[in-house]
Amino acid sequence: MAMNRIIVVTSGKGGVGKTTCTANLGMALAKAGKRVVVIDADFGLRNLDLLLGLENRIVYTALDVLAGECRLDQALVKDKRQPNLALLPAAQNRSKESITPEQMKKLVRALSKAYNFVLIDSPAGIEMGFRNAISAAREAIIVTTPEISAVRDADRVIGLLEANDVKAMRLIINRLKPAMVEAEQMMSVKDVQDILAVPLLGVIPDDEQVVVSTNNGEPLILGKELTKAGIAISNITRRLQGEKVPLMDLSAPKESFFKKLRQLFT
Amino acid sequence: MGNGNDQPINSNSSDNPGDIERDRVEANTSASASPPRKSVKASPKNASKSSRAALSARLKRSKDVELFVFDETDQGDENTSPLVDVSTIDLDVDTADSQPKQQITLKSEQGRLLLLLPSSSTTSFAPSEWEELCQQLTLRLNSGDRFLQPNTTVHLIARDRLLDGRQLQEIDELLSAAQLHMKRVYTQRRQTAVAAVTAGYSVEQNTKLDHFNQSPDAGEALDAPLYLQATVRSGTEIRHPGSIVVLGDLNPGGSLVAAGDIFVWGRLRGVAHAGSEGNADCRIMALQMEPTQLRIADKVARAPEKPPAHYQPEVAYISQGSIRIAIAADFAQLPVDTP
Predict the structure, then answer these.
(1) N or C: lower Cβ tally within 10 Å for chain B?
(2) CB neighbours (10 Å) of residue B6?
(3) Contact A1 B34 (CB under 8 A)
(4) Which residues of chain B does A58 touch, with a Cβ-Cβ cutoff of 8 Å?
(5) Which residues contact A147 (CB under 8 A, 6 or more apart)?
(6) Predicted TM-score (pTM) above 0.90
(7) Is the ipTM of this complex over 0.85?
(8) B235 with A44: Cβ contact below 8 A
(9) Which residue from A193, A169, A197, A178 is spatially nearest to A257, judged by alpha carbons?
(10) Is the minimum CB–CB distance between A140 and chain B shorter than 8 Å?
């Protein structure tokens, strides 16, 4: 039996989908019967609660726990839709300096006793907030988009993770647009991997539905009919648990192009 | 309730807003509860253990994208401890330096303004604390500027905090921007006194300042209401040991914490906590009540799931042990609650 997993989700660059990935992975793992806690390590700019639709249920935050103002379990917000999932919210009104890596470690280590998976949503950047987020992690999921800047930042973060002894790293390439890759307008999965040289955990295609689910506080993975992005996340979750799942075929549907062309002429 | 215009909203005791579930975590003691991980290998060599360089080289040779799959040996640890009940976890936290966050206070006394720095266990300001303090002061000055008479004298009550010349100058600049003049500095610190004298302020050192120090045993009387003309944005928390009046909106992510009532002449969308010292008679009033959360004394409530068709001024108050919302126009006519 393996030990409980402590995974930080990080990227370096902001806006590549760390929080969305964390929310969806957490929800998917919980759906698969695992006990999961997601930790928002983005002190001062918390978002994870919004994506999970739990904002109005927050009473205490991680800082209140550390200040001894409440017990750990009081600060955990349980998801109504998925009782296996809990959220440890970050404080909104404090800076990232208000918590130390040691305190973070203490919280995470304690939670890992009660949950199969501890997912830590790292803030963007490589400053204090990032250092806090990775301090207790045993594994890391690097999220990047197929863009030069995101890949560059991801590469820097991978170096920092290695230096901090987080060696088990996996890569998620988010927001891939297959049509653009085919037209050689966007970096391909292979291009990204050539640079980062981190084992691939999965590729998530660009999906407008993500915006909708973000705004509704309903993770994509809860949808009745999964979109391609939803399937990708569900595959990633299975891989995380050790299943061998082949990469989804993301090649752009060609016939639709001809259909469009035909429509132009009729 | 009287005329039926008040709508009950989800509310409960302080660690349980509405129908939030806080069931105990089941202790998962059986190993079979978590299905054994399938041992599937993606590649003959364990990718996570090979160095990045080796992997990189391998990637360059292989044309296909390599997919990583976890397997049991990855975890490499023989830790087999079963899950424990999270409510049994007792974090041994050091509460010594984590007092509730104090804020700066600006109050008038006999025609002067007193600027009180928050007291703390540490005498010197950490950079982040100082930055926060300056932001607070700016917000207070900007949001009350209609009442600040130009050329009012300000006395700085520094208590036992250490301030250097640069910090004094920063405060002075913020005050000057609001056309206020810092004249006198009260301090218990020699170092601060020297810095203040050097900068040309008159200084009173070593005064006990008992009436400035709001020690917990100083009494329960509330401060004068804090009046703010501002939008309280996400990440801003305003605490006041009295009532708070906001002429503007309270945005989601922002919070107001008042020992007395909270009155928002605008849209209340963030978190409002009235009666924070425990007074359950306190109320929260807003022109448009669409809160993330309302708290009165030790009660917490979320807004009703379905927003009303159109908003009108409302009052939140505690009745029969839970927070209720009534239309403001009818609230005055409600019969007085019997406890």
Answers:
(1) C
(2) 20
(3) yes
(4) 293
(5) A187
(6) no
(7) no
(8) yes
(9) A178
(10) no
